[in-house]
Amino acid sequence: MRRPNTLYRVTTAAVVFSLILGIVFIARTGLPSADVIARQEASRPIIKVSDFNPGDVEIISLNNRRVIVWRRNETDRTLAASQNAPEGWRHQNSRVLGQAQTVFADDTNVTLEGEWFFALAEFSNPYQHLILRSGDFEGFFEGLYAGHFDLAGRIRIGGGSTNLTVIKAEYVDDGQGIQLYLDGKP
Which of 76, 73, 110 is nearest to 91 (CA)? Predict the structure, then answer.
């Protein structure tokens, strides 16, 4: 009588093990593959806060895109606050990279806590280039059409047709890094 009991137990254990293994296999097939994860991480690069001192502004290349990274100092913040008057802007809204809706071009909507400004330094014409920290509003100057931008990337004077396209960002790693959303999806 013991022999059939043992066969039943071994068979039951094998079936249960197979079911658990099948469930684990099915669950793992629903996870993204390594190439999908790598693509997603590439579209959401992280910038180290310690790499930029207050007042630093530069154009860096991320995923073959030219991106303005500006860490404002107190003087920049004060000047930006004085420029935050909608009646002086040519355009009331700014595009956000990867999003269909525009945002009101208020300084709080286009910066990260008023300290960090991220925007695309790309134009449809390949001969257009921005000069950083210049122009009549101490923001950016675009030489081809003599476009003057203020500290929040809003076109104020000249031939530029729109405000700069801003990039959404948020602090990560307990404030040690900033994650940029180049795909527009936070």
Answer: 110
Instruction: Tell me if residue 87 falls in helix, strand or coil.
Output: helix
pLDDT in tens, 6-46: 888 888 999 999 999 989 888 888 777 776 666 666 667 88
Domain that holds residue 172: 45-180
Contact present, 178 and 115 (Cβ < 8 Å): no
Domain count, the chain: 2
Give the Cα separation of 153 and 163 in Å (integer): 6
Q: Specify the 3-state DSSP secondary structure of 122.
A: coil
Question: What sign does the dihedral 129-132-136-139 (CA atoms) show?
Answer: positive
Residues 55 and 132 in one domain: yes
Assess whether 126 and 152 both reside in one domain: yes
